[in-house]
From TrEMBL:
<keyword id="KW-0472">Membrane</keyword>
<feature type="transmembrane region" description="Helical">
    <location>
        <begin position="20"/>
        <end position="42"/>
    </location>
</feature>
<keyword id="KW-0999">Mitochondrion inner membrane</keyword>
<keyword id="KW-1278">Translocase</keyword>
<dbReference type="GO" id="GO:0008137">
    <property type="term" value="F:NADH dehydrogenase (ubiquinone) activity"/>
</dbReference>
<comment type="similarity">
    <text>Belongs to the complex I subunit 2 family.</text>
</comment>
<keyword id="KW-0679">Respiratory chain</keyword>
<dbReference type="InterPro" id="IPR001750">
    <property type="entry name" value="ND/Mrp_TM"/>
</dbReference>
<keyword id="KW-1133">Transmembrane helix</keyword>
<protein>
    <recommendedName>
        <fullName>NADH-ubiquinone oxidoreductase chain 2</fullName>
        <ecNumber>7.1.1.2</ecNumber>
    </recommendedName>
</protein>
<keyword id="KW-0496">Mitochondrion</keyword>
<keyword id="KW-0520">NAD</keyword>
<keyword id="KW-0813">Transport</keyword>
<keyword id="KW-0812">Transmembrane</keyword>
<dbReference type="InterPro" id="IPR050175">
    <property type="entry name" value="Complex_I_Subunit_2"/>
</dbReference>
<keyword id="KW-0249">Electron transport</keyword>
<dbReference type="GO" id="GO:0006120">
    <property type="term" value="P:mitochondrial electron transport, NADH to ubiquinone"/>
</dbReference>
Length: 68
């Protein structure tokens, strides 16, 4: 919403006439959820991390994008 307020002058997220804002938000959510085509980083990061770090990466970071 900060980027939307900066570009449009409005704090309403539902009103997003700026395509750059919409694209940025969609790509960020896709990256957080591990959805294709941004899913390539996900297995590599999980493979190189400890069990507790992999647990945090694979569960906790998914709550915020799913809540949107």
């Amino acid at each position: 919403s900060t980027f939307n307020a900066w570009t449009t002058g409005q704090w309403h997220v539902s009103h997003t006439p700026a395509p750059m804002f919409t694209t940025t938000i969609i790509l960020a959510i896709m990256l957080k959820l591990g959805i294709a085509p941004t899913h390539a980083w996900y297995p590599e990061v999980l493979q190189g991390s400890t069990l507790s770090t992999a647990l945090i990466i694979s569960t906790w970071q998914k709550f915020a994008p799913l809540a949107l």
